[in-house]
C-alpha cells in the first residue's frame, strides 16, 4: 500500500571516528499510491551496528508530526542516528490509519548505513 524510499547519508562533519561516533542522516519519502488518505500515527525503528548492538526506537509520529498523506501524494522528512561503528543498518515500520479507520503497519525495508569506502 504505502511505498517507502530511504536515502542514508554519512555526516563526517558531525562524526568523531576516533571516539567511536559515526553520525548518519537519513531521508525518508512515503508515497501513497492508494485511493484513500492515510495518517502516520507511530514509528518503530530497529538500529544495529557492526558490533551487534541493537537499539529500538518507538514513538508518536515522525519529527514531531503525525502527517496525513493524501491519495497520490508523498510526505518526506529527514532525521539522524549515531552509531559506534562505521557500518550498521536500520529497519522498522510505521503504524498508520486510513480514512476509513483501518489501521495497518507499513514496513520500512532494511537499509545500510556505511561510511563511504568502508564496504568496498
Task: Set down the secondary structure blueprint.
Elements: E1 3-10, E2 22-31, E3 38-49, E4 54-60, E5 68-69, E6 74-83, E7 87-98, E8 103-114
Antiparallel strand pairs: 1-2, 2-6, 3-4, 3-5, 3-7, 7-8
Question: Concise description?
Answer:
The chain is an all-beta fold and 120 residues long. It has strands at 3-10, 22-31, 38-49, 54-60, 68-69, 74-83, 87-98, 103-114. It has one domain (3-114): Sandwich (Immunoglobulin-like), CATH 2.60.40.
CATH topology: Immunoglobulin-like
Helical content class: under 10%
CATH architect. name: Sandwich
- How many angstroms does the end-to-end distance come to? 34 Å
Characterize the biggest β-sheet. Answer: 5 strands, antiparallel
What would you give as the CATH superfamily?
A: ApaG domain
CATH class bucket: Mainly Beta
Plain-language structure description:
The protein is mostly beta strands and 120 residues long. It has one domain (3-114): ApaG domain (Immunoglobulin-like, Sandwich). Helix content is 0%, strand content 61%. Strands 3, 4, 5, 7 and 8 form a five-stranded antiparallel β-sheet that branches. Strands 1-2-6 form a three-stranded antiparallel β-sheet, with no helix packed on it. A hairpin with a 4-residue loop joins strand 3 (38-49) and strand 4. The termini are far apart. The model has no long low-confidence stretch (mean pLDDT 96).
Amino acid at each position: 500500500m504505502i511505498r517507502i524510499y530511504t536515502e542514508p547519508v554519512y555526516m563526517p562533519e558531525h562524526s568523531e571516528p576516533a571516539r567511536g561516533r559515526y553520525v548518519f542522516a537519513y531521508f525518508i519519502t512515503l508515497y501513497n499510491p492508494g485511493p484513500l488518505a492515510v495518517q502516520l500515527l507511530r514509528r518503530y525503528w530497529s538500529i544495529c551496528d557492526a558490533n551487534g548492538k541493537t537499539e529500538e526506537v518507538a514513538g508518536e509520529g515522525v519529527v514531531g508530526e503525525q502527517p496525513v498523506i493524501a491519495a497520490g501524494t508523498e510526505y518526506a522528512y529527514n532525521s539522524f542516528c549515531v552509531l559506534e561503528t562505521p557500518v550498521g543498518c536500520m529497519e522498522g515500520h510505521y503504524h498508520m490509519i486510513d480514512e476509513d479507520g483501518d489501521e495497518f503497519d507499513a514496513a520500512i525495508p532494511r537499509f545500510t548505513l556505511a561510511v563511504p569506502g568502508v564496504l568496498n
